[in-house]
């Protein structure tokens, strides 16, 4: 059930997904959501319930908040249930402000386009 229609904390225990969101500044906050909540739902809820300790990082719109899970941006329609998060445990995700997202396969495409190019550097 989308969080906009049911307040946080009202879900059945077995259906709760616990997230610890980390900002670039290192500040964290714990939230509870439903497995049916999408990345867009989460961004809107966080924006509407912006933690007091995060005031310096406040953004102008929920549409620029992006979640990063296991090094990948979550696109707006991805639900927490689709991620198969471990039940009963808190999952850590990063929350960043970014206008646009990379295409889902852009990293793989960039790797396929490389032939003999090298991006190595030597530190002395």
Can you summarize the main beta sheet? Answer: 5 strands, mixed
Q: Mean of the pLDDT scores?
A: 81
| Overall number of strands | 5
Radius of gyration: 17 Å
Distance between the termini: 55 Å
What's the tally of helices?
Answer: 2
InterPro entries: MUB, Ubiquitin-like_dom, Ubiquitin-like_domsf, UBL3-like, UBL3-like_ubiquitin_dom, UBL3_Ubl_met
Protein name: Ubiquitin-like protein
Membrane topology: Lipid-anchor
Subcellular location: Cell membrane
Question: What does this molecule look like?
Answer:
This protein is an alpha+beta fold and 124 residues long. 15% of the residues lie in helices and 23% in strands. The chain contains two helices and five strands. The protein has helices spanning 39-48, 106-113; strands at residues 17-22, 28-33, 65-69, 72-74, 90-97. It has a five-stranded mixed beta sheet with strand order 2-1-5-3-4, with helices on one face. The chain is globular. Mean pLDDT is 81; it is low at 1-13 and 108-115.
Which SSEs are present, and which pair or pack?
Elements lengths: L16 E6 L5 E6 L5 H10 L16 E5 L2 E3 L15 E8 L8 H8 L11
Parallel strand pairs: 1-5
Antiparallel strand pairs: 1-2, 3-4, 3-5
Keywords:
alpha+beta, 5-stranded mixed beta sheet, UBL3-like_ubiquitin_dom, lipoprotein, UBL3-like, Ubiquitin-like protein, cell membrane
